[in-house]
Structure formats: C-alpha cells, structure tokens
Design goal:
alpha+beta, 5-stranded mixed β-sheet, 3-stranded antiparallel β-sheet, 8 helices
Length: 265
C-alpha cells in the first residue's frame, strides 16, 4: 500500500524547494551560472504536471497570482525576442543579463498564463517559461542529462539562434536559458511575497484592452493590447491569426508607489 502525504508534508516539500531556490539564487548571483540547473529542477517539481504526476502547486491548490516582469512581445517583430533579458558588455565580451530591475509597470497573471507565456522567439521556435524550465531540468543537467538535446533548445543555447553578436561578430558568451531561469526564479519569489501580503486596493482600469493570444495547440501565449502597443495593420493581421481570450486588467497601488497591473480571468 502506498503512503499518502498529508497536506502538512506536502507543504514541507514546497517550503524545501523554495529554500533550495533561494540558496541557488545566491550562488548564481555570485557567478555560478550552473546553479540555473538546480533552480530549474526545483521549479519543475513545484509547477510541472505530467500524465503520471502532479506538481506541488496543483497538489496544494495554491491561489498564487504570478508576477510577469517581461517586456511586451510582438509576434511580427523582425528581430528575435527575449523578453526577460537585457544585454551587457563585459571584459570577456557581450553577454545576456537577467533583468531583475524593479519596473514601475508590470503584470500579474494566473498560473497558466504565466507558465505558458512566450519569453523567447528565435523565429524557428517560441519558448515559454515552461519550455525553458523543463528543457534544463529534463535534458540539460538538472535532473537528467540527455545525450541528445532537443534541436530547437540546442540552437538557442549553443548555436546563437537569437542572432546577436558584438561589433566583432562574436556571439554572447553565456547561456540565455540559464539567465532566463534566474529571472523566472525572481518572478516566483516576488509572487510569493505578494501572495502573503495580498493584492490590495485593486480597481479596474478604464479604456485599456488586454487579452491573451494563444498561438498553438499546447497553449503557448502572449499578452496583447490594442491600447498599449503601437502596431501596424500587418502586425494586427499576424496577431489575429492567434486565438484571443479576454482578460480583465486591474491596477494596484502599493506604498512604494509602484503601479502593478494584474491580468486575471
């Protein structure tokens, strides 16, 4: 007979994974980018559901609203997209940088919107938070090392499919997926803190139209707004090919003065 964990025991596992993430974040920020593999593995345990297993998040039935710090994504952009990262020059060359800055404007989402939001687009593949976390955890040394990486993921991390380089033509020297996982961890930790505080003083913002656009049958998606994004008729034709789901936009005012926009069902 199999032993069923109590809610308290599940909560202990949840708390342990958060502790592991915090420790790995500290090491990552001290320069150990390989800690992204540990972070991804913990995020996978917390959030990834399969046919045979449920995530801790689902088992505990938590009602967390998730912080999305990424820039707005436009599917018709002729340039490649990485919504969670910036670029910086280092003595050794150009590199991707986890964008952890506090923004005066950011979004909050339900779990499915956050987990499945597009954060990379190299014009061959659109990658979500879920994609990046599971590729690292399942293939790239988190919980398993696959002798053959998925081709699209390999293109992203090894073949510079994002296409950026310095003036000498040299590709960035670090791994964009690992930097993105660092941001995803930060988003989650921020979400936890706000979950404890509660989203207060929430009110609907007028004259702003936000929605989620679903791009494929596995649920990859992006936030879209007719009132927040400057777009051409050609862009709108591209966007309109994707399925639209309405979302309600709220704005929150915190003591710090930061405005927080929440996209909910």
């Amino acid at each position: 007979m199999r032993y069923k964990l109590s809610t308290q025991e599940l909560q202990e596992h949840w708390d342990n994974q958060i502790r592991f993430i915090r420790k790995s974040v500290e090491e990552f920020d001290l320069g150990d980018e390989m800690e992204a593999r540990r972070i991804a593995t913990s995020l996978r345990i917390l959030f990834h559901d399969t046919k045979s297993s449920k995530s801790l998040f689902k088992q505990l039935g938590l009602g967390i609203i998730f912080y999305s710090s990424g820039q707005l994504y436009t599917p018709s952009n002729l340039l490649t997209s990485w919504t969670l990262l910036s670029m910086e020059l280092s003595p050794n060359g150009v590199k991707y940088k986890a964008d952890l800055e506090s923004h005066s404007r950011c979004f909050f989402m339900n779990f499915l919107d956050w987990w499945n939001e597009i954060i990379f687009d190299d014009h061959e593949k659109r990658f979500t938070r879920k994609d990046i976390v599971t590729f690292i955890a399942n293939q790239d040394g988190g919980a398993h090392v696959d002798p053959k990486l998925d081709g699209t993921y390999a293109n992203l991390i090894k073949m510079n499919s994002l296409g950026w380089s310095n003036s000498s033509g040299n590709a960035p020297i670090n791994n964009p997926a690992y930097q993105a996982v660092r941001v995803i961890a930060n988003e989650f930790l921020v979400s936890l803190e706000l979950f404890k505080q509660g989203l207060k003083n929430r009110r609907k913002q007028k004259n702003k139209k936000f929605e989620m656009r679903i791009v494929d049958d596995v649920g990859r998606r992006y936030k879209w707004s007719e009132t927040e994004i400057i777009y051409s008729s050609e862009t709108f034709q591209v966007v309109n090919k994707d399925r639209s789901e309405k979302r309600t936009l709220y704005i929150d005012e915190y003591k710090s003065g930061v405005k927080v926009e929440y996209i909910g069902d």
